[in-house]
Design goal:
8-stranded parallel beta sheet; 330 residues; 32% helix; 10 strands; alpha/beta; two-stranded parallel ribbon; binds NADPH dihydro-nicotinamide-adenine-dinucleotide phosphate; TIM Barrel
């Protein structure tokens, strides 16, 4: 059984000039899980950081993935968001990567994956995610818009896109597949798909104390699908400063930790994988120093009481899409 390392490095808005160094520092600091995407336009720089550490002998790609010998399946089983007690943060490396919406047509899935592997200079990805359940018109515009400024969809069904992703696993280009930004109905539809060959190992969703996602997380975890929290620190969203929230600050002071460490630990204690992004050396270090303390039940409840149902990543130009995920409660 392979474990998905519970803390990974996010790479969105990590500019090409900064991200190679961030990845190298992160590997030195003990990160073994990196979250990347075609959309972030920094894949070759992420790959450069990884290659550099492989050539220095700090990590070995062939050791990066552990397959259970005891399993009947040819495919590795995953344990969702390993909890700190069983975690050796040095043990695994894990590269997850997201398929962008303009590549949802079946033949394009393989093209997209091969291009990303080439840019990353890798033979396989540990996890390939469908970034959104929505397919867009293929082409060079990542978000093709019509005259009214709304996205131009393509007539794909995410179940068909999923079949093409399953083929990538069978070909050995990716070890596992998952989804991102799926609501519970979409996930259920996928799990109930006839002839589903490979189950999604994770649903990567926005998650932080202002959008704690209790219902969706219960739904996923009850079905054996792990959850990965993106935007766990509230990002750099205008007008929202989760890191400055008085409750988070108080709990941080009580544990002699920083607000970011509290927000990361909060997810870990819910068995949720978490991928904070930073390109700042001391923050990269700080964000993984979260294995030496525990939040109390009272702390957890106080953090849950901050719920505001505040979604920060809404992707408004896609609200017209038939598969827009945020029209329903969860
Ligand atoms: P985060 O919640 O991770 O916040 C990142 C921001 O917080 C950056 O401005 C960073 O600054 C700052 N920061 C990081 N650490 C600290 C710290 N210890 N103290 C203070 N500030 C800190 O937001 P993201 O939106 O980046 O989410 C994380 C990752 O999730 C993304 O990078 C991406 O990989 C993934 N993601 C996936 C999405 C999806 O649709 N599937 C959507 C959005 C994100 P600095 O870098 O300057 O240090």
């Amino acid at each position: 059984m392979a474990l998905i390392p519970p803390v990974g490095l996010g790479t969105w808005k990590a500019s090409p000039g900064e991200v190679t160094n961030a990845v190298k520092l992160a590997i030195d600091a003990g990160y073994r899980h990196f979250d990347c995407a075609y959309l972030y336009q920094n894949e070759s720089e992420v790959g450069e950081g990884i290659q550099c550490k492989i050539s220095e002998g700090v990590i070995k790609r062939e050791e990066l993935f552990i397959v259970s010998k005891g399993s009947n399946s040819r495919l590795p089983a995953y344990k969702a968001g390993a909890y700190a007690a069983e975690l050796n943060p040095q043990a695994l490396a894990f590269l997850s990567y997201s398929l962008w919406c303009t590549f949802h047509k079946k033949p394009l899935v393989r093209t997209a994956c091969s291009q990303s592997l080439k840019a990353l200079k890798l033979d396989y990805l540990d996890l390939y995610l469908m970034h959104w359940p929505m397919g867009f018109k293929p082409g060079k515009d990542s978000v093709p818009l019509d005259h009214s400024g709304m996205v131009i969809p393509c007539n794909t069904d995410f179940l068909d896109t999923w079949e093409a992703m399953e083929d990538l696993v069978n070909e050995g280009l990716v070890k596992a597949i998952g989804v991102s930004n799926f609501n519970h109905e979409q996930l259920e539809r996928l799990l109930n798909k006839q002839n589903l060959r490979i189950r999604p190992v994770t649903n990567q969703i926005e998650c932080h104390p202002y959008l704690s996602q209790k219902q969706l997380i219960s739904f996923c975890q009850a079905r054996g699908v792990s959850v990965t929290a993106y935007r766990p620190l509230g990002g750099s969203s205008e007008g929202v400063d989760l890191l400055d929230d008085p409750v988070i600050r108080r709990i941080a002071e009580e544990h002699d930790k920083t607000p970011a460490q509290i927000l990361i630990r909060f997810q870990m204690q819910r068995n949720v994988i978490v991928i904070p992004k930073s390109v700042t050396p001391h923050r990269i270090q700080e964000n993984i120093q979260v294995f030496d303390f525990e939040l109390t039940e009272q702390d957890m409840n106080d953090i849950f009481s901050l719920e505001k149902n505040l979604r920060l990543v809404t992707f408004p130009t896609t609200e017209n899409h038939k598969d827009y995920p945020f029209h329903i409660e969860y």
